[in-house]
Each structure stands twice: as C-alpha cells, then as structure tokens.
Amino acid sequence: MRLVIDWPGARLTSRFAPQEAVDSDTMNSDTTDSRPGSRVRVAVVFGGRNSEHAVSLMGAGSVLEVIDRSKYDVVPIGIAQDGRWVLAPGDQTYAIEGDRLPRVDETGTALALPSESASLVALEPGEIPRSLGEVDVVFPVLHGPFGEDGTIQGLLEMAGVRYVGSGVLASAIGMDKAYMKLVLRAAGLPVGPFVVIGDRDWRTDRARMLKEVEELGWPVFVKPARAGSSQGISKAHDPASLEAAVEFAREHDPKVLVEAAIAGREIECAVLESLGDAAPEASMPGEVRVREDHEFYDFEAKYFPDGMRLEAPADISREVAETMRAMAVRAFEALSCEGLARVDFFYTPSGEVIVNEINTMPGFTAQSVAPKLWAASGLPYPELVDRMIRLALNRPAGLR
C-alpha cells in the first residue's frame, strides 16, 4: 500500500520500494518530472487539529523558505483546525502578526482520505484534474496530538512512505509525558517527582488525587500530559490554586501531569541521528533565559518576540556539558527516536542534572531552540533541513 493523492488518472505516491535506500545527493536536479533521476519530491505537512496548530505553521514556513528547490520539488499540505487536509501555498509566510496566530486556510483544494485505502483524493470542484506527481518523502512539521503522537507516522508506515522524524513508538511515548518519564526512568535517567491525574480519577476520586499532589510540595507545575509548546501549563502555589490549574490543563487533555517544581537552570540539548551507522550526536547545550515578567517558560516566552533568549553554549563546565550530551543521546535511544529530538534538563544549584522531557518534533523555526543549538554547533538551519530529509530517504520504511 502506498500514500497517494489521487484524481482520476493522477496520483501522488512514492516511486521507491519501501526497502530501497535513496541517496538524495545522486538525484538529478535538472528536471521536475517524477521519473527516476528527477528531483526528490518532498511533501511538507503542517497545521493540525490541536492547540499547537500555529506553532506547526511557523516551523513549516521556515522549512519552506530554506529548502533547496534545486534539489527538492516541494508539495505543501496543510491540515486545517477542523481536520481537513488541503493543498497549501508554498510561498506564504506563516508568522505571528501582532497577536494574530497563523492558520491553515481550509478553503484550499481539499484532500480526502477514503476509508478503504491510504489514498488521498483531491476534491477540486469545477477544475480539470491535474497530477501532482509522485512524493518520495513526507516532512511532517506537526506538533501535538494527531500529528506528533504517532498517528500520522502510523498512516505513513501503512502506506510504505518514508517520512522525516521518529517512528510510531517513539512519537507516541514522546507525546505522552507520563509514559515518557517512565521510560526515561527505566533507562536509568534521573527525572523529577510527578503525579498523573487520569480523567476517571479526577471525576471520581478527586480528594485522593489532590492529596497525592500535595505530597510533592509547593509549588507544582500542572500541564496536559499530551500537549506541547507550553499550552495549558500553569503554576500552582497552594491547594486553592491547584484545582483551577488542573481544570485549565484538562481543556487541552483529560490526562494531566503534575510535576514538583525543581529549582535550577533550564538547559537544553538537541540530538541528531547519524547518516551512517554511528551513534546519534548531540549539540552543544544551551541555556534558556526567560524575560523577567514571565513566571516560567510559557507559550508567550517561547514564541513572541523577546520573550526569551538562548545562550549557546551554556555557561557550564565542560564536564557538565559532556554529561548532558551523553544523557541526551541516552534519552534519544531509550525512546528509539529517529531524525531529530530536543532534550530539556534542569541543572540544580547542587550540581544535579535532571531530565525534564524529550521532544521528538521540537519547535522547528530557524529561531527555535533545537535549530539554533545546531547552528551554534556548526550545522546551519538550511543544512539541518537537508540532513533531516536525507536521513528519511536513507531509512527503509517498515520495521527497522
């Protein structure tokens, strides 16, 4: 089975067999057709029906801006907030304008997914069917549920189509912070104390859950278990504010994670899969400095101008930096990640290094932390985008 965008007589599918390795450097850049020897065709998929929709668009806009058009033929595909897939403009700037967040225009040429196959059918009323040609790799610049959590990865696996980033298992574990912490702890990595509040427990045994949280001490951070970009996160300083914080997180996810506050510096490290058989490599660590009027590293601090700054390399000893880099690679491998990930640490005043979380598809604008860490480590953003595509092309589809 192959992923197809299909009109009558026209299809968008992978021209390579699932187990066939592809070297993008050997592709001929002189032609735009879909026959062997032509440019590699990349479908950049972005948007999604979750609270991280705008973050995805900002990352996709950066990818579309720098991707090498002499080497890759690009097909932009947007997922609207209502879940509809549409063909999107490839020359649009997806950026925050004032306080207005970007969004996918759901009025574009619609794509439907028939239940009987993995084919995508384009629905363009009143237009003559036209072929998009074949796609060799999908670049899902997606965050949050229904994109970063293994769902689209599973669709592409079933279709036998290569894609950028981690597979189904790593994506699903990385999305669910509760299971992520269990896996990291099982791998011998230090994680902070936490409590998971499930939907049924909150509705039927709220007093017990509140008591378990109180045992963590105050303050605590309350967040959706399966969301990112600091959406739905708040800081509770006492029992009176805890219930409101849980309800706020539940607006994004019925499963809530409550973490003990850890005093320390926030330091992050990016990890990149090797093109060959070598172990994954880690970037230099960088420290996140949040503007003083932000109580913690929230959505506005991450994505609005001047909300934070990144100091790379972080002002830490060489020994601590190497410890973090080694721990970042261990976390990457513990979840069986592929492509790129970002691992976040707390560095306490006593010198303890604690893993906060791993992101299997971190923010991916040119100004996001992971790309900036790689740029500071000697791999500029356009080369990082190219490396991600080459990694996907050189990786077989299916079990590996």
UniProtKB/TrEMBL annotation:
The entry's Mg(2+) 1-binding residues are D344, E357
Per the Swiss-Prot or TrEMBL record, the active site comprises E52, S229, S368
**MF GO annotations:** ATP binding; D-alanine-D-alanine ligase activity; metal ion binding
Q: Which residues form the ATP-grasp domain?
A: 181-390
Q: Which reaction does it catalyse?
A: 2 D-alanine + ATP = D-alanyl-D-alanine + ADP + phosphate + H(+)
Protein keywords: ATP-binding, Cell shape, Cell wall biogenesis/degradation, Cytoplasm, Ligase, Magnesium, Manganese, Metal-binding, Nucleotide-binding, Peptidoglycan synthesis
Residues reported to bind ATP: 177, 221-223, 229-230, 259-266, 356-357
Where is it found, in Gene Ontology cellular component terms? cytosol
Cofactor binding note of this UniProt entry: Binds 2 magnesium or manganese ions per subunit.
Source domain of life is: Bacteria
Cofactor(s) recorded for this entry are: Mn(2+); Mg(2+)
Record localization: Cytoplasm
Q: Which Gene3D superfamilies match?
A: 3.40.50.20, ATP-grasp fold, A domain, ATP-grasp fold, B domain
Q: Which residues form a coiled coil?
A: none
**Pathway the protein contributes to:** Cell wall biogenesis; peptidoglycan biosynthesis
Q: Where does Mg(2+) 2 bind?
A: E357, N359
**What processes in GO biological process is this protein linked to?**
cell wall organization; peptidoglycan biosynthetic process; regulation of cell shape
Q: For this protein, what is the EC number? A: 6.3.2.4
Tell me the protein family, please.
Answer: Belongs to the D-alanine--D-alanine ligase family.
User: NCBIfam families from the entry?
Assistant: D_ala_D_alaTIGR, PRK01372.1, PRK01966.1-4
Q: What does this protein do?
A: Cell wall formation.
The name this protein carries in UniProt is D-alanine--D-alanine ligase
Q: Which organism is it from?
A: Sphaerimonospora thailandensis
